[in-house]
Amino acid sequence: MKTLKIAIQKSGRLNEKSVEILKNCGLSFENYKSSLISTVTNFPLEILFLRDDDIPEYVQDGIADLGIVGENVIVETKAEVDFLQKLGFGKCTLKIAVQATSNIQNLEELNGKAIATSYPVILEKFLQEKGIQSDIRTISGSVEIGPGLGLSDAIFDIVSTGGTLKSNGLKPFADVMQSEAVLIGNKSIADNPEVAELLQRIRSVLSAKS
Ligand code: PRT
Ligand code: ZN
């Protein structure tokens, strides 16, 4: 029997809930903080702890068979994987935001404007669909400070409570994508009986919760 590998986030917003859902499926494993890999003792499964950005490609390339990651990261990395199950946590909306004092009213006004983001692929796709040409400035973090410093006219980022936007003098302008954590699988594992068993356990954990 092949030992499956599932990739989950090593640390960050999805780590705790990812570990929790696997434990609730009856899987026994040590949640090592220092190790990158943990072996499940009562199911043919190994858990790989990775940066979330790497998970879709690992699953696409078959280094991991399964993964738990935000939908936004899958779209951003353009990975070709199967969506197996939404998991109901890590919910957020990717939004374009502008300065609270801005009088930008409609999307067309973003033509020619600079938008700072760490998610250029998702933003580009959205702007293309709307026929808008903005100057997308890709930066790896702290995009919220851009408009205040005059680095960009708008930002495109993940929002959950909206507190970060507010405390940086920004307001939401347009919703682009909803996201939550999902279970993904490599394209070639669809018929694997252990995957089916794990998926069934995950679904019963989810339905017991709702
Ligand atoms: O280290 P690693 O690369 O693995 O983690 P990371 O730092 O890239 O990601 P992490 O842990 O911050 O987020 C993992 C995933 O959680 C994201 O890809 C989303 O799918 C999901 N998620 C849900 C969020 C948020 N909510 C969220 N609020 N990811 C980030 N944020 C950030 C956002 O970027 C902004 O800075 O929180 C801030 C806004 O939050 P509010 O509540 O102030 O609106
Ligand atoms: Zn990341």
TrEMBL record:
Protein name in UniProt: ATP phosphoribosyltransferase
Keywords recorded for this protein, A-Z: Amino-acid biosynthesis, ATP-binding, Cytoplasm, Glycosyltransferase, Histidine biosynthesis, Magnesium, Metal-binding, Nucleotide-binding, Transferase
Naturally occurring in which organism (per UniProt): Pedobacter roseus
Regulation of protein activity: Feedback inhibited by histidine.
Enzyme class: transferase
Primary localization: cytoplasm
Family of the protein in this entry: Belongs to the ATP phosphoribosyltransferase family. Long subfamily.
Task of the protein: Catalyzes the condensation of ATP and 5-phosphoribose 1-diphosphate to form N'-(5'-phosphoribosyl)-ATP (PR-ATP). Has a crucial role in the pathway because the rate of histidine biosynthesis seems to be controlled primarily by regulation of HisG enzymatic activity.
Subcellular localization: Cytoplasm
Catalytic activity: 1-(5-phospho-beta-D-ribosyl)-ATP + diphosphate = 5-phospho-alpha-D-ribose 1-diphosphate + ATP
Name of encoding gene: hisG
ATP phosphoribosyltransferase catalytic domain boundaries: 51-203
Top-level taxon of origin: Bacteria
Pathway as given in its UniProt record: Amino-acid biosynthesis; L-histidine biosynthesis; L-histidine from 5-phospho-alpha-D-ribose 1-diphosphate: step 1/9
One Gene Ontology cellular component annotation held by this UniProt entry: cytoplasm
